[in-house]
Specification:
180 residues, 3 strands, 6% strand, mainly alpha
C-alpha cells in the first residue's frame, strides 16, 4: 500500500496492527522493544493505557478493542520498557567514536530513565556511558565532542557541554545501524 494511499484512506485497527506486526517481526527482541518505546513516546501513549482484557486476551477482535474501557485504578500499569545503553549501542552499531557520542546523547535525551535524562552531554558523560556500553575509550574524550561538532552532529552550548542537533538525532534515529 502506498504512503499516499495510506494517508488518505481510513485504516481499520486490524490493518494497523497487521502493519505493525509485519514491520516488527524481522527485528530482534531488543530492537522491537526500542521501536515500540519510541513509537509510544512519539504518540504520547503510556504503557499503562492498555486494559486488563487487552493485556491478557491475545485473541481479541477489532470490536473488542474498540469497545475497551480505560483501566480501573486497581489494575496496575504496565512497566515502561527499559532500554540500557549497552543494548542500545548493540542495536545501533556505531562504527566511529563520533557516532557513539551521538548514540550516548540520543540515549540520554530520549531513552534514559527520568533521573538520568539530560539535554546536553559532556566529556564526563561520554566516559561514563562509553564504559557502561562496553565501547573502547578514546585517548582524548573532550576531543570527541569537538570533532563530532565539526562533523555537524552537535551544537556547543558552552563550557564543554554539547547538544545533539537534528543531524545527530537523525543519524541515530534513522541511519544507524549503517551498512557494514
Amino acid at each position: 500500500m502506498s504512503t499516499e494511499k495510506m494517508s488518505t484512506e481510513k485504516m481499520s485497527l486490524g490493518k494497523a496492527i497487521d502493519i505493525l506486526l509485519e514491520a516488527l517481526e524481522p527485528l530482534d527482541e531488543a530492537s522491537r522493544e526500542t521501536a515500540v518505546l519510541a513509537v509510544s513516546r512519539q504518540l504520547k501513549i503510556s504503557a499503562g493505557s492498555a486494559t486488563k482484557q487487552s493485556v491478557t486476551s491475545p485473541n481479541l477482535t477489532e470490536a473488542d478493542l474498540s469497545a475497551a474501557t480505560p483501566p480501573s485504578p486497581q489494575i496496575p500499569a504496565l512497566p515502561a520498557l527499559r532500554v540500557d545503553i549497552r543494548s542500545f549501542k548493540e542495536q545501533k552499531k556505531p562504527n566511529s567514536v563520533k557516532q557513539m557520542a551521538c548514540v550516548v546523547a540520543y540515549y540520554l535525551k530520549e531513552l534514559a530513565d527520568a533521573n538520568e535524562k539530560k539535554e546536553t552531554v559532556s566529556a564526563g558523560d561520554l566516559e561514563k556511558y562509553f564504559k557502561q556500553a562496553g565501547y573502547k575509550l578514546p585517548t582524548r574524550m573532550a576531543q570527541v565532542l569537538i570533532d563530532a561538532k565539526a562533523s555537524g552532529y552537535f551544537e556547543s552550548v558552552g563550557r564543554g557541554e554539547y547538544k545533539l542537533n537534528a543531524v545527530g538525532h537523525n543519524l541515530v534515529a534513522h541511519n544507524l545501524p549503517g551498512e557494514d
